[in-house]
């Protein structure tokens, strides 16, 4: 998700420069660095530059290595330690004059600043202290999200995450909250988006097809995934069968109601039961039908980010040893952990055969 896309969406929603900058701050915390006191965003048109200059703390031209940077600068805030600069750049002095004339026609005058003036505008001298205080707060706000994201990176198709920072407050209404809500966008891989919502708006968001659609609708924007709808039981089974055959190289043995049984060439059997994302199980069995491992959603173990959990070894001595699985209850998203359990089962099977020989 590019920051320029966020800016364009905000402009389409008729949000002014200050409101657009606030949206950028929500996303921008994911990009801040300890040694970089500015979040710089290059924009493509003079119209967008004007839009951002109209609410900026300062508008100016900064010259570096022969390149003219026409900047709309928003100063550091209590909740965001770095200055944000929305800029166009060029080496063409005539183009600078042309853009400058356009900006000034709309009532904004901006002149050059030198290095000392620029340093003062971004307050780089105080950045290290601001960043340290902000980073401690950021870590506290995102601790739960980071833990969930780490588990999902390890066990599912999710490979990246974005935290929409709202400084410990509900992203919708601004009331203080410690609750977390997430939404996952999935194509070839998955991106998990996290945010803070109060109990009221979390419950309200669950009435929309996706959490992102809820936010877009609340902001008065376009619903991003209007064709989203719950999968039918038949579609879920069809997708599970496809994942088992294509991705896990299994042969389908049988399909009964919401349960699919498939077998690998090694004889290891995979049984997928999918009633819903909150009622599912993935069972890995030996060629003789003995349960080796299982992922399920039953709420009978205390695990972080539960109730979804994994039994990695179902032998008597370890069958009640569980840990969080971080799974979705969607075979396509959960393939990584399912494959890992299959490979562990096949490894044990291979070792047993070596011992026998």
Q: What is the fold's blueprint, element by element?
A:
Blueprint: H1 3-12, H2 17-28, E1 38-42, H3 46-53, E2 58-64, E3 67-74, E4 83-90, H4 93-105, E5 112-113, H5 115-122, H6 127-155, E6 158-163, E7 181-186, E8 190-195, H7 199-205, H8 211-218, H9 233-247, E9 251-256, E10 259-263, E11 269-276, E12 279-285, E13 291-296, E14 309-311, E15 323-324, H10 335-356
Parallel strand pairs: 1-4, 2-5, 6-8
Antiparallel strand pairs: 2-3, 3-4, 7-8, 9-10, 10-11, 11-12, 12-13, 13-14, 14-15
Helix pairs in contact: 1-2
In what range is the share of β-strand residues? 15-25%
Q: Show unreliable segments.
A: 222-227
Structural class: alpha+beta
Largest beta sheet: what is the strand line-up? 9-10-11-12-13-14-15
- Provide a count of the helices: 10
Can you put this structure into words, describing what you see?
By secondary structure, the protein is α+β, with helices and mostly antiparallel strands. It folds into three domains: 3-122, no CATH class; 138-218, no CATH class; 233-356, no CATH class. Helices cover 37% and strands 24% of the residues. The strands form three sheets. A seven-stranded antiparallel beta sheet has the order 9-10-11-12-13-14-15, covered by helices on one side. A five-stranded mixed beta sheet has the order 1-4-3-2-5. The longest helix is centred in the middle third of the chain and has 29 residues, at 127-155. The termini are far apart.
């Amino acid at each position: 998700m590019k920051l320029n896309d966020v800016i364009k969406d905000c402009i389409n929603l008729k949000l002014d420069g200050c409101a657009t900058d606030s949206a950028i701050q929500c996303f921008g915390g994911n990009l801040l660095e300890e040694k970089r006191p500015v979040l710089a965003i290059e924009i493509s048109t003079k119209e967008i530059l004007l839009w951002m200059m109209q609410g900026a703390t300062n508008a100016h031209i900064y010259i570096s290595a022969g390149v003219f940077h026409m900047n709309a600068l928003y100063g550091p805030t209590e909740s965001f330690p770095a200055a944000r600069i929305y800029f166009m750049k060029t080496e063409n002095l005539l183009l600078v004059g042309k853009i400058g004339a356009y900006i000034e026609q709309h009532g904004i005058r901006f002149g050059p600043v030198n290095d000392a003036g620029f340093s003062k505008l971004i307050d780089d001298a105080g950045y290290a202290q601001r960043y340290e205080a902000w980073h401690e707060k950021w870590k506290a706000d995102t601790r739960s999200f980071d833990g969930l994201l780490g588990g999902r990176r390890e066990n599912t198709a999710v490979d990246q995450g974005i935290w929409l920072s709202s400084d410990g407050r509900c992203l919708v209404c601004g009331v203080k909250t410690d609750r977390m809500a997430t939404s996952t966008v999935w194509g070839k891989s998955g991106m998990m988006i996290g945010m803070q919502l109060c109990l009221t708006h979390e419950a309200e968001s669950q009435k929309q097809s996706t959490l992102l659609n809820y936010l877009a609708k609340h902001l008065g924007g376009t619903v991003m995934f209007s064709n989203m709808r719950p999968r039918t039981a038949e579609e879920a089974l069809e997708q599970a069968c496809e994942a088992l055959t294509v991705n896990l190289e299994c042969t389908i043995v049988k399909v009964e109601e919401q349960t699919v049984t498939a077998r690998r060439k090694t004889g290891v059997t995979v049984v997928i039961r999918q009633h819903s994302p909150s009622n599912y199980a993935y069972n890995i069995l030996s060629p003789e039908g003995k349960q080796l491992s299982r992922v399920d959603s039953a709420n009978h173990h205390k695990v972080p980010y539960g109730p979804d959990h994994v039994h990695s070894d179902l032998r008597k001595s370890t069958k009640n040893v569980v840990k969080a699985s971080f799974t979705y209850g969607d075979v396509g998203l959960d393939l990584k952990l399912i494959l890992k359990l299959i490979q562990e089962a096949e490894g044990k099977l291979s070792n047993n055969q070596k011992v026998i020989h």
